[in-house]
Amino acid sequence: MSSPSSSAELSTTLEILNGLLNSFSDQLSSCGSKQTSISNPPNALALLHDSISILRAQVTKLSLLLLNKPFTPSAVASILASISAECLPGLMTVYEICSPDTYGKLMQTEVRNQLRDLVSAMRHLVDQTASMADFANMNAPEGPGGSKDLIGRREEILQVTGQVWSVCDRMLATASLGIVGVAMNKAKEWEALIKDAIEELEEWDPDADDDFDMDLDSEHEEKSSEEKVSGSAVKDEQQHQVNDAPTVRIKHQSNGTVLDKDNTKLSSTSQPPSTDPPPTTNIHSTKSRVLKLLKLIKMLFPALRKRRISIFPPFT
Question: Do 115 and 47 touch, CB atoms closer than 8 A?
């Protein structure tokens, strides 16, 4: 059983780490706030790589301490203190110096989004650490096959540790790729997205989309039936008013329009023919126009990668 002093030290360390994570999360959420300018800043990508490498190693040691017996609060507190004193300040500095003027808006957004994911995963890991510490302080007995509660907690720790590792690996890849590599990957992702959209549109046949047409027909029939019911009630009321108050009607012989004595049109027996094209024709023409635009956009990506991104000098 752990000593009260070591348990108190672990509790204090968890509170400090939680406070740092909350502060970092608020800083990342306030996208509109200006970043602090630092004179002679270090290379943000190199600092990102070093900070994430240390954090990943510390998280690995932490998970091993949480999974194996006996539970030692002093050792766990030491690792958490190292994360609070070394890793998080380094990552906060990376966010401060990774400005769009120096590294570009794309890199700044990529780093900020990955830091948000990391903070979220670290919060879950801190919660699981506190839960395991409380469970160890309870000194719950284990059966021959192991406590089900303890097994469940260990599975959760493994899952959360895997989430932190996944984010760390993505951030290490970002630091290694640099600005040119990240821009190249983004261009490939957008080109693949456009390619998928083109393939989906080419396979789609508006004439064979029976389910979509049936849904539209059913909705149209429901609206028509509602309009007919409401329209018949209005017509009955109007007819009742007309019968009660007789008016002088004059029928225009040329177009069949019925006028009352104030020359107000009551009805018309002739309507101009509709000049709108059939709905299917509109869909096919829109599909062809969209496909043409998407194919033109897709043609820009190879030139973008070859003549713009690849010739960009590496950042040092």
Answer: no
Q: How far apart are CA 196 and CA 184, in angstroms?
A: 18
Residue 266 three-state SS:
strand
Nearest to 104 by CA among 26, 174, 169: 174
Q: How are beta strands 258-259 and 265-267 bridged, if at all?
A: antiparallel
Positions in the chain short of pLDDT 50: 144-146, 246-256, 258-261, 263-268
Q: What dihedral do alpha carbons 301, 303, 304, 309 form, nearest 10°?
A: 130
Say how far apart CA 69 and CA 72 lie, in whole Å: 8
259 beta partners:
250, 265
Model pLDDT for residues 205-231, shown as the tens digit of each residue: 888 765 555 555 566 566 666 665 566
Instruction: Please compute Rg for the chain using Cα positions.
Output: 35
